[in-house]
Amino acid sequence: MISALPFDDFRNLLAILPPADTAAEARVRALFAKADKPKGSLGRIEDIAAWLAAWTGRAPPAVNRPLVAIFAGNHGVARHGISPRPVAATANAVEHCAAGGAAVNQICIANDLGLKVFDLALHIPTADITEDAALDERGCAATMAFGMEAIAGGTDLLCLGDLGVGNSTVAAALCAALFGGSGADWVTSGSGADASMRARKAEVVDAALAFHGTGLRDPLEALRRIGGREFAAIAGAILAARVQKIPVLLDGFVAIAAAAALQAAPPAALHQFQHSRLAPAPAPARAPQRLRLRPLLDLGVSHGEGAGAALAAGLVKAAALTSSGMAAAVH
Questions:
Q1: CB 1 within 8 A of CB 9
Q2: Beta partners for residue 115, in sequence order
Q3: Using alpha carbons only, how large is the chain's radius of gyration in Å?
Q4: Which of 232, 258, 267, 325 has a CA that sits 20 to 30 A from residue 146's CA?
């Protein structure tokens, strides 16, 4: 239920999140230590298995119902010419996924992953963040609540991705608000912006930061003022996953920015997420560093739409199976 002060519900939830199960994590590490192999020889596979145990409470861990959830939103700020793609491209990409023709569809088939794509009112872009808040508090809270429903039906590994023309500029604005810096520090080429378009993107970010000013000091306010529907939905999905003890894989700049807003909201210490892929561009690569996240993959993938998280899910599944199989052998 959403109260008269919608964000209060989320602030209260952030205050009572369950901690990591350090005992389960220790059991997994102990099982690897007893296995017939050189110490630490499986490298990050051991760390991934221990991470799964910590955030699920299961030792050894298991991944039986992995899900890729992609949230799609449109942005009023796109009217400033910050993307080489038209706004209609967001809906086209959603339809492409629904038809099974996107890269993420094939990766999900290869790794036996479920896939859900959510159209977040694409026909109603958010307000232009250079002159208004993207969403009002009730609308942002309702979208976060909608994102929380992504795990309905059950999952034990949640992979989060996005679709949205112009949303790399919005992610840059949100990271600048949360971490500091100017537009030039955070904008990227996105889906193919040239130098002049990148400069325009930086100007848009700076204009948004100046317009909202001190209103961005609160992370949830920053999320609603200069974020967007896919950002809010991803934040809600992360929060719901934490409550339900579901580990999360983040894909790309947008998901990282949404996670950063939650992480910055006191007293949050989420940490149940992993970053799926190293971004080729410097700015998106800096954002996970601020959250102390090491990417699981370095494949030069900048495609978006959850593809990197879907690829990383295969690695996470392998880590879980390695842990459980070796545990059986030890016993």
A1: yes
A2: 68
A3: 19
A4: 267
Residue type, 43: G
DSSP 8-state assignment for residue 249: E
Question: Token pair of 90, please?
Answer: 């967001």
pLDDT score at 209: 98
Written as one string, the DSSP assignment of 192-229 is T--HHHHHHHHHHHHHHHHHHGGGGSSHHHHHHHH--H
Q: What angle do CA 161, 166, 168 make, to 5 degrees?
A: 55
Q: pLDDT digits over 75-93, tens only?
A: 999 999 999 999 999 999 9
Confidence band, pLDDT 50/70/90 cuts, at residue 188: confident
- The verdict on whether omega for the bond into residue 66 sits within 30 degrees of 0, i.e. cis, is no
| Residue whose tokens read 């949050």 | 268
By C-alpha distance, which of 292, 271, 310, 7 is closest to 135?
A: 7
Burial call 302-326: b when 16+ CB within 10 Å, e when fewer: bbbbbbbbbbbbbbbbebbebbbeb
From 25, 46, 230, 305, active-site residue: 305
Write b or e for each residue in 245-257: b if 16 or more Cβ atoms lie within 10 A of its Cβ, otherwise e.
bbbbbbbbbbbbb
